[in-house]
Amino acid sequence: MDLDRLRNISIIAHIDHGKTTLSDRVLELSGTVDARDMRAQYLDSMDLERERGITIKLQSVRLDWRDHVINLIDTPGHVDFGYEVSRSLAACEGVVLLVDAAQGIEAQTLANCYLALENDLEIVACMNKLDLPAADPDRCAEEIESVLGIPAEEVLRISAKTGDGVPELLDAVVDRIPAPVGAADDTLRALIFDSHFDQYRGVVSSVRVMDGTLRSGQKLRFLQAGASHQAEEIGIRSPGPIAVDTLGPGETGYLIAGIKDVGEARSGETVTDAARPAEEALEGYRDPKPMVFCGMYPVDGDQFPDLREALERLRLNDSSFTYEPESSGALGFGFRCGFLGLLHMEIVRERLEREFDLNLIATAPSVAYRVHTKGGEVVEIDNPSEMPDGAEVEAIEEPFLNVTLLTPSDYTGTLMDLCQTRRGEMDKLEYLSPERVELRYKIPLAEVVTDFFDQLKSRTQGYASLDYEPAGDDVSDLVKVDVLLNSQPVDAFSMIVHRTKADDYGRRMCEKLKELIPRQLFDVPIQAAMGGRIIARQTVKAKRKDVLAKCYGGDISRKRKLLDRQKEGKKKMKSIGRVEVPQEAFVSALKLD
Ligand code: GTP
């Protein structure tokens, strides 16, 4: 293929600014997908993605425009998947930066734009949703010029919905974005920027050939995984898969190499020729590192083997989440799972419940702490119940994030207040324009994984946006709070919190449990303790519950029914320190508020 006629691009945008709609329109206008077959959001293939309107899995698709071939590479639209965004950008020479003309620049517009600049990509900026009465393109263009330094007159104006301006955008892609460079006979180096598991074909990877030529049947070496596999099939998507014999330099497509586990063909992997391997891998490979952890337990203990199987199957498709068995006195047998972030956690949980028909309890999310003991050891824990005894702890480190918030200036005060209550330290406050403020804070991850995002949205009527990146570990004054039921600690409710928040956590947990635990035949004390010291207490008063009291008269069948129902209810109870706790109480108590 003639390299001069090739363009590799991604569309980058803040969530909801219309990336998927624009991709759909581009596929349609270029004749790649027949308008009749056009199913909205062609590129988002997972049901869940379609429902939630978020892009998770990356795909690339080839389309023809004005005698040129454009490879459109989809990027995930959520901060949890930042690393995958940077991998997919490494497969491009340029990006279309899409900004909602009614909303203006948002946090991920900035973050994605910086990523594109770091990768030396050409940026074609365009404003979307011009058909909306609320669109204010002149103001938006000014903002793009002042914040991103892209001249306002170069910013294109489109409506992804109606298609207005989209042909001109494709022209601009062809005219402004450089063609890839590379020689067909160089040593092969191809970048994997996405892999998914197909039930019939095994792992299907999206690849971008950087140097040399990828051939069907070729024996390949996966440099970072240190494995060899044969290219069973290579091809392009347009939009369905079409097998080809070779993919030359600058081209993107898919690769099937008989791999059974996506963990062996991760994004960022470099593929080379086994017979003539490249010496150096392409830059930027990183093992995905879970940041947020929680326990997942089947509501019905009998479903434990099903949960194990479901996790194994899901992991084939998503090598970035981790799991290992754990047991809890309160919840029985389950798994400790690690995720890239909160949305990732929610997605995995929802897929488990939906695709595998499981009913799950998830414990409160936690982060990974590095505990320095007085004996000079460093232990990494992601479950509060593993915390060494307080007397042995020298110091605890916790992970931090650099958080960027973009907000209409009216909400600056309430957001500063939110960040401060979350132990944030301000790095920067800057007016991007008289109406828009950028705030940067360093905040402990643990304070963000609770309900930070919801708070952010509700305090600003949805107008503020958020982006974050890991900022390493640092020492904090942290303590473990235990919750005891009838003097017995309940592991599922243990929590590591900042010392200043321990009382509050303890009090809230006791109050909540008091509401949730039914009266027993005896008084049940509920206590919160910090290193052996009780910091909060509530009592569920005893009450004798006589289910037959209502049945005056001698209707035996009615009595039996009531007794049966009571027995049924008992089955769903867990017994902790002689206290019968309904499963429902755990679920509600673990819900974040
Ligand atoms: P993520 O996948 O979550 O990143 O979102 P996205 O950027 O792909 O946004 P999507 O294409 O799903 O669009 C978000 C919403 O904006 C949808 O309801 C679209 O119908 C709407 N939308 C997109 N483009 C336009 C447009 O040009 N005009 C109007 N009126 N609405 C649009």
UniProtKB/TrEMBL annotation:
<keyword id="KW-0648">Protein biosynthesis</keyword>
<dbReference type="InterPro" id="IPR013842">
    <property type="entry name" value="LepA_CTD"/>
</dbReference>
<dbReference type="InterPro" id="IPR027417">
    <property type="entry name" value="P-loop_NTPase"/>
</dbReference>
<comment type="similarity">
    <text>Belongs to the TRAFAC class translation factor GTPase superfamily. Classic translation factor GTPase family. LepA subfamily.</text>
</comment>
<dbReference type="InterPro" id="IPR035654">
    <property type="entry name" value="LepA_IV"/>
</dbReference>
<dbReference type="InterPro" id="IPR031157">
    <property type="entry name" value="G_TR_CS"/>
</dbReference>
<feature type="domain" description="Tr-type G">
    <location>
        <begin position="4"/>
        <end position="181"/>
    </location>
</feature>
<dbReference type="GO" id="GO:0003924">
    <property type="term" value="F:GTPase activity"/>
</dbReference>
<dbReference type="GO" id="GO:0045727">
    <property type="term" value="P:positive regulation of translation"/>
</dbReference>
<feature type="binding site">
    <location>
        <begin position="16"/>
        <end position="21"/>
    </location>
    <ligand>
        <name>GTP</name>
    </ligand>
</feature>
<dbReference type="InterPro" id="IPR004161">
    <property type="entry name" value="EFTu-like_2"/>
</dbReference>
<dbReference type="InterPro" id="IPR035647">
    <property type="entry name" value="EFG_III/V"/>
</dbReference>
<dbReference type="InterPro" id="IPR006297">
    <property type="entry name" value="EF-4"/>
</dbReference>
<keyword id="KW-0378">Hydrolase</keyword>
<dbReference type="GO" id="GO:0005525">
    <property type="term" value="F:GTP binding"/>
</dbReference>
<dbReference type="GO" id="GO:0043022">
    <property type="term" value="F:ribosome binding"/>
</dbReference>
<keyword id="KW-0342">GTP-binding</keyword>
<dbReference type="InterPro" id="IPR009000">
    <property type="entry name" value="Transl_B-barrel_sf"/>
</dbReference>
<dbReference type="Pfam" id="PF06421">
    <property type="entry name" value="LepA_C"/>
</dbReference>
<dbReference type="GO" id="GO:0003746">
    <property type="term" value="F:translation elongation factor activity"/>
</dbReference>
<dbReference type="InterPro" id="IPR000640">
    <property type="entry name" value="EFG_V-like"/>
</dbReference>
<dbReference type="InterPro" id="IPR005225">
    <property type="entry name" value="Small_GTP-bd"/>
</dbReference>
<dbReference type="GO" id="GO:0005886">
    <property type="term" value="C:plasma membrane"/>
</dbReference>
<dbReference type="Pfam" id="PF00679">
    <property type="entry name" value="EFG_C"/>
</dbReference>
<keyword id="KW-0547">Nucleotide-binding</keyword>
<keyword id="KW-0472">Membrane</keyword>
<keyword id="KW-0251">Elongation factor</keyword>
<feature type="binding site">
    <location>
        <begin position="128"/>
        <end position="131"/>
    </location>
    <ligand>
        <name>GTP</name>
    </ligand>
</feature>
<dbReference type="InterPro" id="IPR038363">
    <property type="entry name" value="LepA_C_sf"/>
</dbReference>
<dbReference type="Pfam" id="PF00009">
    <property type="entry name" value="GTP_EFTU"/>
</dbReference>
<comment type="function">
    <text>Required for accurate and efficient protein synthesis under certain stress conditions. May act as a fidelity factor of the translation reaction, by catalyzing a one-codon backward translocation of tRNAs on improperly translocated ribosomes. Back-translocation proceeds from a post-translocation (POST) complex to a pre-translocation (PRE) complex, thus giving elongation factor G a second chance to translocate the tRNAs correctly. Binds to ribosomes in a GTP-dependent manner.</text>
</comment>
<protein>
    <recommendedName>
        <fullName>Elongation factor 4</fullName>
        <ecNumber>3.6.5.n1</ecNumber>
    </recommendedName>
</protein>
<comment type="similarity">
    <text>Belongs to the GTP-binding elongation factor family. LepA subfamily.</text>
</comment>
<dbReference type="InterPro" id="IPR000795">
    <property type="entry name" value="T_Tr_GTP-bd_dom"/>
</dbReference>
<dbReference type="Pfam" id="PF03144">
    <property type="entry name" value="GTP_EFTU_D2"/>
</dbReference>
<keyword id="KW-1003">Cell membrane</keyword>
